[in-house]
Amino acid sequence: TTLLGMYKGTKSYHNFTSGKLKGDMSARRHILSFEVHGEPFIYKNWEYVELRVKGQSFMIHQIRKMIGLVIAYASGHCGDDHVTRAFEENMEDIPKAPGNGLVLRQVHYDQYNKDYGEKGKGSLEWEDSQDKMNHFAKENILPQIFELDVEEKNMLNWLMGMDKHDFTGKDRKSTL
Predict the structure, then answer these.
(1) What is the pTM of this model?
(2) What are the pLDDT digits (tens) for 99-146?
(3) For the chain, first and last CA: distance in Å?
(4) Is the distance from CB of 41 to CB of 48 less than 8 angstroms?
(5) For the packed helices 62-74 and 80-88, what is the interaxial angle rounded to 10 degrees?
(6) CB-based contacts of 51: which residues, under 8 Å, 6+ apart?
(7) Contact present, 8 and 31 (Cβ < 8 Å)
(8) Given 8, 70, 118, 134, which is the most exposed site by the fewest CB atoms within 10 A?
(9) Please, are residues 40 and 49 in contact by the beta-carbon 8 Å criterion?
(10) Full DSSP string of 39-90
């Protein structure tokens, strides 16, 4: 959870998407929370953990790269210096985690509800349907994701290629 906490707040995610450079204001994003939800669980001898991120908006590949950087750091492939450079330098190599387990579970309209909504009158909230949505996901969506993940070994293959990434910043410097 501490590693995920590094994303909280407003930061430049120029290295977490395509075509953005340091200083590009359109790469600034505000993350409200990023945390582990529940306990790790086993599915067919594979361990999974549910992560939940809440932010004001996301760019293409941003969440996959946020997870990729956490995994690279937690597995010892990179250190604090690379994490710092990811937010402060141009063209840092951030591994993009496989997207097959990435699921949009809920859209939040907090500001809209605060400005315009009254519970039951124009409010865009899902609390009344949350149990049904969770049940549907658990029974119909997640098993297919897990089966595909186990069958294709996407995460395992991605992890095996982690050493192809430059976590030193040297390759970046040679191209600038």
Answers:
(1) 0.85
(2) 988 877 766 666 666 676 665 565 666 677 888 988 998 899 999 999
(3) 34
(4) yes
(5) 160
(6) 4, 34, 35, 36, 37, 67
(7) yes
(8) 118
(9) yes
(10) EEEEETTEEEEEEEEEES---TTHHHHHHHHHHHHHTTSS-HHHHHHHHHSS
